[in-house]
TrEMBL record:
<dbReference type="InterPro" id="IPR015882">
    <property type="entry name" value="HEX_bac_N"/>
</dbReference>
<feature type="signal peptide">
    <location>
        <begin position="1"/>
        <end position="18"/>
    </location>
</feature>
<dbReference type="InterPro" id="IPR004867">
    <property type="entry name" value="CHB_C_dom"/>
</dbReference>
<keyword id="KW-0732">Signal</keyword>
<keyword id="KW-0326">Glycosidase</keyword>
<dbReference type="InterPro" id="IPR004866">
    <property type="entry name" value="CHB/HEX_N_dom"/>
</dbReference>
<dbReference type="InterPro" id="IPR017853">
    <property type="entry name" value="GH"/>
</dbReference>
<keyword id="KW-0378">Hydrolase</keyword>
<dbReference type="InterPro" id="IPR029018">
    <property type="entry name" value="Hex-like_dom2"/>
</dbReference>
<dbReference type="Pfam" id="PF03173">
    <property type="entry name" value="CHB_HEX"/>
</dbReference>
<dbReference type="InterPro" id="IPR015883">
    <property type="entry name" value="Glyco_hydro_20_cat"/>
</dbReference>
<dbReference type="Pfam" id="PF02838">
    <property type="entry name" value="Glyco_hydro_20b"/>
</dbReference>
<dbReference type="InterPro" id="IPR025705">
    <property type="entry name" value="Beta_hexosaminidase_sua/sub"/>
</dbReference>
<dbReference type="Pfam" id="PF00728">
    <property type="entry name" value="Glyco_hydro_20"/>
</dbReference>
<feature type="domain" description="Chitobiase/beta-hexosaminidases N-terminal">
    <location>
        <begin position="803"/>
        <end position="964"/>
    </location>
</feature>
<comment type="similarity">
    <text>Belongs to the glycosyl hydrolase 20 family.</text>
</comment>
<dbReference type="InterPro" id="IPR014756">
    <property type="entry name" value="Ig_E-set"/>
</dbReference>
Length: 1628
């Protein structure tokens, strides 16, 4: 159907010097290629002259031999192919043809070296012509035998300027009769001869058969409670409509036309794809009628089109009656020549569905590639799906079409079976049939080569059936050359192996379709362009006898092949499809229909149809959207227009005066539809793919669905005039509406160049699609300016807006769309006296949910309805809203502007909103909007309704009322004193509270201890003596402490306190230290002494690991805060501080040698290029003076380590990777740019963490698309190696580094999927087969690096799991004796991850329980919208919940789903509960504070305390109630024990926290009024409750309530402790 070739230049001389890899590498970087098409006209299109210039731009000399350059052209060069090649004496080279488009050149005597800065000019003749830059594909490369090939960088796809401009007619014309010239702007201006209607001309594309619009009446889909009502059979379509509109749906009877209902109604009187759409404003009712789901689906597309054209707010009254013109409305895409992944395909399918196209013809195989996995025939994808430099073609096919030397380009790739099933399912959901094409018998080279490798492999193994699927006859000496210059691309139709192969392929594809839920109906066998000469010397073919045919030779074999495939497909219940020449002989006569024994044969007629190939123009010189629009499907002769040369041609010239040469269509019923086609030779990436298809596909949709009235007009002039009027409407629709809809699908459609001319000295412009914007440049394209907009901004405007713009954010409705999205409103009010005018300013705001998820992504912004503002996702939680040039007017004084939109999931808490929104514009200082500079978030409206505080309809949680809290607290009796002497509870304690020992510094002495010198020094204020006094002394004894039957512990201690002495016995310093902590916790301060009760304690911890995790990456917390936390941790015998030092939002540790990490990564500020800092997140604002910025210096970190060592706490540093690494990635990119600027590429690339041009698309859980370190780049591991070495150095001599935590969690799906580095790694590795294997590879590499430093590694559980149920094999990560520590946090049984801790432990990991439901202190204390914290794992976690955690039985902890519903036993354990086989691998538990909402020290304290005390209790002490199997009885017993714990907090331990400045959370009081009397209580008895009945003007103790009760009104209550107050809310 078109012609493709590659040429290879191999520059060698006869006397060879040894060439090295360094030579090849140098040439890749320094040999600059320039191609110039010189002349097409000298030989009148028979051949063309082109020049190739080789320039050595480096400083070394390029040898005169030993290397080869490979390149591609679409036209034959010189007189090849010829055996032995062709010597070009004047160039001193020999040109040889390999296969297809691949050529090589060997220099002959006289070629010479290319010294530095020198050039060589090579002159060649190519067959036919070359008139486009894309006639010279990119990615030329150089190679030498035994060495690695290298891309010639100057020709890479990213540098397509290696082909010189076409500036002369002899360059751009094909031959002398060619009338085409490139359009000038003036010519375009004259071609775009339609009016700008200033609005869409067609309300729906494709055009309906009947449409009536009444704009005087409308419905408002945003008002009230609209609902979609659907019959059961249309449930899926209802879900689609609900997802697009945010309107909830239900399934049931549709007999009633209830107001505010969109009804999907079955109507059996309609045809299969027909639909009726009614929008009634009077009854506020919308109905879509259809016989089938397809009809309903198309009605929905029309409704959505109307919504996009108007808005949901003002949808006009309408009536649409519609059905398609053709049953077949298709798009054909070739993925074999250049592969396009499933995401590209899915975007195309989305667009096809939107425009009611229903057939997707997927061209899966060709000479250049096989793109679908066939189980049982792995060679098809192992070899046939790859193109690389392998002359033997044993690993891959040779490069073609500019695919370059390796498998990292679109020349390689395939769909796994799962991918293909996913595509089918995706298409099926959109009412699109997938029609697979497997090209045969021609265009089959990829299959042939793959099956030859299979044959050789099996033959070598001695298997007798090696040739079972062999596709060629080895003795066949037929000589042929295909249009694409292959001599080996025709499989043999005369051998049975061929049909076994085809049946196998069909069966596997059919199986995939069945599994996907769309049974295979049609199989496309290709059949086109079988080369002349194929099979003429085939013994099998010469012996073939075919009955009933007059054909012979190739034509007979082709017909025989078609007959066999017709039989095969008939037997499998399939329709056979083929290109027209596969079903016709060489004289264009179709095969007799009776010879093809299949009830239905479909033919793709292409010989007079447009083909959208980027730069290929054999059928026509160009095909624009207007040309496709004018296509007449029912009278092909009306399409006669111009010759290939561009000269006009009349119908009479073609058909003769009597139409004798143009036969009439006798069976119009056999024309079943239309299909657009993209053959992908030049579609080398997603951008080219999209731009070649769109917007022309919309025309295919239009013509295949709708027959225009002008198509039936016989007179050409009248027909053209009417079609132009129709085109005017269509083109305005594209510019003003449809292209914006494609934007929402993230489709990179072609934007037409503008037309322009000077009129009376004034520049006037137009465009093919009115509505597109114009820009101009007057500085040679350095900068661009709008032709129409006059946007001005100054500092005064920013200052005024920041000071006077009042922001009010309100959650309107969480329940509007299930759990999918919620509705949000932001009111912007101008409180000042000036106008806030349009300009280039943007307001930056934060949203932790994805805004407009159903329209995401929106690279050009989402126009918020009726606001005139566009919202853009900057990244993470950061968004910006900017004035829309067309629709924004201004915000006048005392006026407001409403922004209403949807966001993903829900917002049920005030702290989901972040403060410090700001306004900024290029060139000016940003300013924080004062109304949002409020850490109390008063600019967020109260959550007063169930639709605001519930997350979704199934949410069982409601905010606690005082009465609810009163009943909850009533379980805890007020003991009037501490319930326990000591937290955490010792193993045994014998205490005499009444006997107090006074320890006075002038009386008591400490006996010096050589065993525990630091512990002696910890007891400040007492003198140390060498000789024991008779009494009043503290003695330290080193000895093993044995407690009952418990295992011996290094942390055990025995403490005896009596009237005259204190004895501490311990075997290790940690035990002695914890004994001291017990003394201090038991003591009470007096004026100048302390009192300690007489006591004896035997004690040791249940777990060796008792940890607290703190995230300082998202919000930084100071050195002083860390030291304070360490102090409290040690007081409660916690011994691990897990310090989360890096995140997407910040890097917090100085690393010598990588200064950029703190210069850039530790700061957040407004810097859109992120050169000096990363962008603001989580309310950090535009400046660096907030908790968004900060880091620990080397000295700071060492001080943390010293303090931790003193307190017997081990610090575990975490640097999160490969995900959650944006701050590091941006920092190292800054380093790269710094060194690149100086030309030092070695340093630039040394620690680079991301591939600069990686096109992979993903979105992390926190909405970043650039936060994953590339695991396929060696520079990533140099970075990690440097980190570990530096951490080891920091810890050395203080607290040796024993564990390095690399994070590993939440790597975004889609990361690295298109990375060329990863493709190279996977192609070179036997163990890495897909992107899914890269996480394990990363962990393995980190393990190797750490092991070399004698350091263990740790990670979050998802960084160590291959699947949801299977972890990586420990030995694949590290080798004995090194360990891997797994932090298990995903204990949501309803999602199937509840038992991961046991899975990991049983597989040899050392496990720390980090369970989110009980141990994540970033979650709220109550299910109240005013409580701080995220709530994804559980709606709330109070102190009792942490206290009641059962570490030894993880199945005992979760009894509720995240919505608050009871978990069923089968939800927790499925068939059975996994047994913990290696309990010794459960090392301990850890509490966590992720700091998204903790910006201040008070907020941090509030979230950690007092829950940390409950954590310490469970980590140190195992209670008897933990062993009670029945949950109800266990919780009763736990509550009884918590009573003592709570009284201890209220009467003692909270006071201790006060003493050291901890700003812990005070629980709100419980209260109720009975008979006018106020009754109150607290969760922690000992706290006082106060009331106010004058709206907070005065407060009184609740114990002093009036004896006669309260009059009607409102009572305010608050809890008070020392100087801390928490206001509760209201009681009526």
């Amino acid at each position: 159907m078109f012609f493709t070739w590659i040429y290879t230049l191999s520059l060698l001389t006869t006397g060879c010097l040894a060439i090295t890899q360094n030579n090849i590498d140098y040439m890749g970087n320094s040999l600059q290629i320039k191609v110039k098409i010189v002349d097409n006209l000298k030989f009148d299109g028979k051949k063309h002259l082109f020049h190739v210039t080789l320039q050595n731009i480096g400083s070394e000399t390029i040898p005169n031999s030993g290397w080869t350059i490979y390149f591609c052209s679409y036209f034959l060069i010189e007189s090849l192919p010829k055996e032995g090649g062709v010597v070009l004496d004047s160039e001193h080279i020999r040109l040889n043809h390999l296969t297809g488009c691949l050529f090589s050149i060997e220099p002959v005597h006289g070629f010479g070296e290319i010294v530095s800065k020198a050039t060589k000019l090579l002159k060649f003749y190519g067959r036919n012509w070359a008139v486009s830059k894309t006639d010279m594909p990119p990615n030329w490369y150089v190679s030498s035998s035994g060495l690695q090939p290298r891309l010639l960088n100057s020709t890479s796809l990213k540098k397509s300027n290696f082909v010189a401009d076409f500036v002369l007619p002899k360059q751009w014309k094909r031959y002398k009769k060619d009338v085409y010239n490139p359009f000038t702007p003036q010519q375009r201006y004259n071609r775009y001869k339609i009016n700008d209607l200033k609005k869409p001309g067609k309300l729906i594309i494709p055009t309906p058969k009947y449409i009536r619009i009444n704009e005087s009446g409308h419905v408002d889909l945003t008002s009230g409670s609209w609902r979609i009502q659907s019959e059961q059979k249309f449930k899926k379509e209802a879900q689609i409509l609900s997802g697009k509109t945010g309107i909830s749906f239900g399934v049931g009877n549709n007999s009633n036309t209830r107001p505010k209902t969109i009804s999907l109604i079955s109507n059996e009187t309609l045809s299969d794809e027909e639909y009726f759409l009614y929008i009634s404003s009077n009854s506020e009712y919308i109905s879509i009628n259809g016989k089938t789901a397809s009809g309903i689906f198309y009605g929905i597309q029309s409704l959505l089109s109307l919504i996009d054209g108007y808005t949901m707010k003002k949808l006009p009254e309408a009536e649409v009656k519609d059905k398609p013109r053709f049953e077949y409305r298709g798009m054909h895409v070739d993925v074999s020549r250049n592969f396009h992944d499933k995401e590209d395909i899915k975007r195309l399918l989305d667009a096809m569905a939107m425009y009611k196209m229903n057939k997707f013809h997927l061209h899966l195989t060709d000479d250049e590639g096989w793109r679908i996995e066939i189980p049982g025939l792995p060679e098809l994808t192992d070899i046939g799906s790859k193109r690389c430099h392998d002359v033997s073609e044993e690993r891959c096919l040779l490069p073609q079409l500019g695919s370059g030397p390796d498998t990292s380009t679109s020349g390689s790739g395939f769909y796994t079976r799962d991918d293909y099933i996913e595509i089918i399912k995706y298409a099926n959901d959109r009412h699109i049939e997938v029609i697979p094409e497997v090209e045969s018998p021609g265009h089959a080279r990829a299959a042939i080569k793959a099956m030859e490798i299979r044959y050789k492999t099996l033959k070598k193994k001695g298997q007798s059936n090696a040739d079972y699927y062999r596709l060629v006859e080895p003795s066949d000496t037929s000589v042929y050359l295909s249009n694409q210059i292959y001599n080996d691309n025709s499989l043999n139709p005369c051998i049975e192996n061929t049909y076994r192969f085809i049946e196998k392929v069909i069966d596997e594809i059919k199986s995939a379709h069945s599994e996907a839920g769309q049974p295979l109906k049609k199989f496309h066998f290709g059949g086109d362009e079988v080369p002349v000469g194929s099979w003429v010397n085939s013994t099998a073919c010469n012996a073939l006898k075919v009955e009933g045919t007059t054909l012979s030779g190739r034509e007979m074999y082709k017909q025989f092949f078609a007959q066999r495939l017709a039989n095969i497909t008939r037997n499998k219940g399939l329709t056979l499809v083929g290109w027209e020449d596969g079903l016709m002989d060489q004289d264009k006569n179709p095969y007799k229909r009776k010879l093809l024994h299949n009830d239905e044969i479909l033919a793709n007629a292409w010989d007079n149809i447009w083909e959208w190939e980027r730069g290929l123009y054999w059928a026509t010189r160009f095909t624009d959207t207007y040309k496709s629009f004018r296509y007449n499907a029912e009278d092909l002769y009306k399409n006669i227009d111009v010759r290939v040369s561009g000269k006009p041609i009349s119908r009479t010239e073609v058909c003769k005066a009597d139409d004798s040469e143009c036969p009439k269509l006798l069976k119009p019923q056999n024309i079943i539809g239309m299909e657009g086609n993209l053959f992908s030779e030049t579609a080398l990436n997603r951008t080219y793919f999209d731009s070649m298809i769109f917007p022309r596909t919309l025309v295919i949709a239009e013509r295949s669905w709708h027959k225009a009235s002008w198509e039936s007009i016989a007179d050409t002039k009248s027909r053209n005039l009417e079609s132009l009027r129709d085109w005017e409407s269509f083109a305005n629709s594209l510019g003003y509406k449809e292209l914006h809809r494609l934007d929402k699908l993230n489709i990179e459609y072609r934007v037409p160049p503008p037309g322009a001319k000077l009129r009376s000295g004034v520049l006037v412009t137009n465009t093919e699609f009115p509505g597109l914007e114009f820009e101009y440049s007057d500085d040679y394209k350095k900068s661009w300016k709008s032709l129409s907009a006059n946007y001005t901004t100054d500092q005064k405007l920013l200052d005024y807006t920041a000071e006077n713009l009042d922001v009010k954010l309100t959650v309107i409705d969480n329940l509007v769309n299930g759990s999918a999205s919620f509705k949000l409103e932001i009111i912007l009010t101008n409180r000042g006296k000036e106008v806030i005018r349009e300009g280039s300013w943007s307001i930056y705001l934060y949203c932790i949910r994805l805004i407009e998820p159903f329209n995401y992504p929106f690279p050009d912004g989402y126009l918020i309805p009726k606001s005139g503002l566009r919202i853009f996702h900057v990244g993470g939680s950061l968004y910006r809203v900017s004035p829309d040039q067309e629709t924004f007017r201004s915000i006048k004084p005392n006026s407001d502007l409403a922004l209403r939109f949807f966001a993903k999931y829900w917002q049920a808490a005030r702290t989901d909103t972040m403060p410090n929104w700001y306004i900024a514009a290029d060139g000016f200082e940003p300013r924080i909007i004062r109304s949002t500079a409020d850490d109390n978030l008063n600019f967020v409206s109260d959550f007063n309704t169930i639709n605001q505080w519930k997350r979704y309809p199934e949410d069982k949680y409601v905010p606690f009322r005082p009465q609810t809290r009163f009943a909850y607290n009533d379980e805890i009796k007020d003991l009037g004193k501490p319930g326990e002497p000591l937290i955490p509870t010792p193993v045994t304690i014998n205490i005499e509270e009444s006997k107090k020992i006074q320890i006075k510094k002038e009386q008591w002495r400490i006996i010096k201890s050589n065993d525990f010198p630091e512990e002696v020094n910890y007891l400040k204020g007492l003198s140390v003596t060498d000789s024991p006094p008779a009494d009043f002394f503290i003695l330290f004894v080193k000895d093993i402490v044995r407690i009952n039957k418990m295992p011996i512990s290094d942390e055990a201690y025995h403490l005896i306190v009596n009237e005259s002495s204190i004895t501490v016995t311990a075997s290790h310093s940690s035990g002695a230290f914890y004994a001291i902590q017990s003394i201090l916790r038991l003591s009470e301060k007096r004026s100048n002494w302390i009192e300690v009760p007489k006591v004896e304690i035997y004690d040791q911890p249940r777990f060796s690991y008792r940890g607290m995790f703190l995230d300082v990456g998202r919000n930084f917390h100071s050195l002083e805060e860390i030291k304070l936390l360490l102090q409290v941790m040690s007081s409660y015998k916690l011994n691990r501080l897990h310090l989360h030092l890096s995140e997407d939002e910040g890097w917090r540790i100085q690393i010598p040698g990588l200064e950029e990490l703190t210069e850039v990564g530790s700061k957040r500020c407004h810097d859109v290029d992120e050169i000096n800092c990363t962008l603001p997140q989580l309310g950090s604002g535009p400046f660096t003076n907030t908790s968004g910025s900060g880091f620990y210096t080397v000295n700071d970190y060492k001080e943390i380590l010293r303090e931790a060592r003193r307190l017997h706490i081990k610090v575990i540093p975490e640097i999160d990777m490969p995900g959650h690494a944006r701050a590091a990635i941006k920092s190292m990119k800054r380093r790269y740019l710094k060194y690149k600027k100086t030309g030092n590429m070695t340093n630039a690339n040394e620690y680079l963490l991301s591939e600069i041009d990686d096109p992979s698309q993903y979105l992390s859980v926190q909405w970043f698309n650039d936060n994953a370190i590339n695991p396929c780049m060696e520079s990533s591991y140099r970075f990690i190696n440097h980190l570990i070495k530096q951490f080891k150095q920091l810890h050395q001599d203080i607290q040796p580094l024993s564990i390095y935590h690399f994070g590993g969690d939440e790597v975004a799906h889609g990361a690295w999927i298109r990375s060329s580095a990863c493709k190279r790694l996977m192609n070179s590795s036997y163990t890495i087969n897909s992107v899914a294997d890269l996480k394990e590879y990363f962990a393995h590499r980190v393990g190797i690096i750490a092991s070399k430093e004698n350091v263990d590694i740790a990670a979050w559980e998802d960084g160590l799991m291959k699947t949801k149920t299977d972890p990586y094999i420990v030995d694949s990560i590290v080798k004995n004796p090194r360990h891997v520590y797994a932090y298990s946090w995903k204990n949501l049984f309803q999602s199937g991850s509840g038992d991961h801790a046991y899975v990991l432990a049983n597989n040899g990991y050392k496990v720390i329980l980090a369970h989110a439901t009980h141990l994540y202190f970033d979650h709220p204390y109550e299910p109240d919208p005013e409580e701080r914290g995220y709530y994804w794992a559980t709606r709330y976690t109070d102190t009792f919940k942490t206290f009641s955690f059962v570490p030894d039985n993880i199945f005992a902890n979760n009894h509720l789903t995240t919505s608050g519903e009871e978990l069923k036993p089968e939800q927790i354990c499925k068939n059975h509960c996994l047994k913990l086989e290696k309990p010794e691998n459960i090392l301990g538990i850890q509490g966590h504070l992720w700091s998204e909402t903790s910006r201040t020290s008070e907020q941090m304290h509030n979230m950690i305390f007092p829950r940390l005390l409950a954590l310490a209790e469970r980590a140190w002490h195992k209670s008897e109630w933990e062993n009670i199997p029945d949950r109800k009885n266990r919780m009763k017993a736990a509550t009884r024990e918590f009573e003592d714990f709570a009284n201890t907090l209220g009467y003692k331990d909270l006071r201790s926290l006060d003493d050291i400045g901890i700003k812990y959370r005070i629980p709100p009081p419980g209260a109720t009024v009975e008979n006018g009397r106020l009754k109150f209580n607290s969760r922690f008895p000992g706290l006082s409750v106060e009331y106010s009945n004058d709206n907070g003007k005065s407060w009184k103790s609740a114990k002093q309530t009036p004896t006669n009760g309260f009059a009607s009104g409102t009572i305010k209550l608050r809890t008070r402790y020392i100087y801390k107050v928490l206001i509760l809310g209201l009681i009526s």
